[in-house]
Amino acid sequence: MNKIFPKDFWWGAATSGPQCEGRFNKPHKNVFDYWFDIEPNKFFNEVGPNVASNFYNSYESDLEMLKEIGLNSFRTSMQWTRLIKDLETCEVDKDGVRFYNAVIDKCLSLGITPVMNLHHFDLPVELYEKYNGWESKHVVDLFAKFARKAFELFSDRVKHWATFNEPIVIIEGQYLYKHHYPCVVNGKRAVQASYNLALASAKAIKEFRDLGCDKNGGKISTILNLTPSYPRSNSEEDIKASNIADMFFNRMFLDPAVHGTFPEKLVEIFKKDNVMWECNEEENNIIKENTVDYLGVNYYQPSRIMAREIEFDKINGWMPEKYFERYDMPGKRINPHRGWEIYPEAMYDVAINIRDNYKNIPWYVSENGMGVEGESKFKNAEGIIEDDYRIEFITDHLKWLHKGIEAGTNCFGYHLWTPIDCWSWNNAYKNRYGFISLDLETKEKTIKKSGHWMKEVSKNNGF
Ligand code: BGP
Asked: In which family does this protein belong, per the annotation (predicted)?
């Protein structure tokens, strides 16, 4: 045993309401529920979120399995479309309140720390149809109201909150690269929605503090997928391109979350290119004054960047790619099922970046993981999936994280995506990420080899 982690380290896993619960008894549809209803062919094997992993019905036994594999903390998200019956007045849905109370109480009874996130790509579709979703300041205010309601109802027991999961992915999916409904391609609208998401997070944090949740042991964060930007070479052009990608994809949310400001050079670019967001001083002050207590960092893959070689195609109007191209680095290690590069060293770079440039704020790895297709072929005679590749993947990342902790970064936990195989956006159940497998036909849930391994890691607080 040579990698021991700090005392009370979180060994856990993360999921989200829309990906695990199933749509049972929800008063509203989120953008993915709606998209599946109108275009099921956009989803792998036409499997939608209707049942997902059935967490709505099986949360008790599911959480007991998490306990069995030694997890001491668990993140999920509360669905706006489940908790709130009237999106304007914020009148609650009784069954939604019952359900989230039951989940929280079950976690606590098992000694599992619940981490509750408020938005995981699941905008109520009505708010898109009526107001253009995150482009609207009214939607920002409705989100803050929903957040306040959640704090009022649950903050007596939930002490760890997050406002958003991966806001940049909402921008990429909804406004740039067409992988979230409504698949708009519009850089200017993307920029406005980005500001509004940062504002919505700050307004929710303000509600949290106005209610005194922070005086009650509560802490609030936002969860960002950091994709450290590595330039192709040390040339000035490549470095410049990489810095711009970093500002757009990482710092646009990381800076306001921790420092309450946006990267100046990015704002300069938006102004110069006539895509700058609309905002006022009062809103900027809210962002300034309501930064996070801690950060959740989802890390899956780095970003390899080079200066533009082919002229930028203006067909779609302004896009961040005006300033860089993706670099397909030869010889990189890759997860072929997801197409994502595997680069555990970046965990250390993230750790040092937070230590040196982000006030050494407390943070945890809120997602990391490896999605693999066709895992059932690794089943042994006892029916256990032998996912040694996942154990290797986690170990590699934890080693670099540990090195970061030794160098003084303030990291207090590691959550795998995900505890039990869950539904994913367009990929549905194609790639499996869990410590626990889900047989879609029999609905049986079985601990994988990695789950048994995690139990030991958690017991020993290291490996
Ligand atoms: C993260 C999301 C999760 C999850 C995960 C795996 O970006 O926060 O919701 O889905 O990625 O990605 P995917 O499901 O697309 O393979």
From this structure: Belongs to the glycosyl hydrolase 1 family.
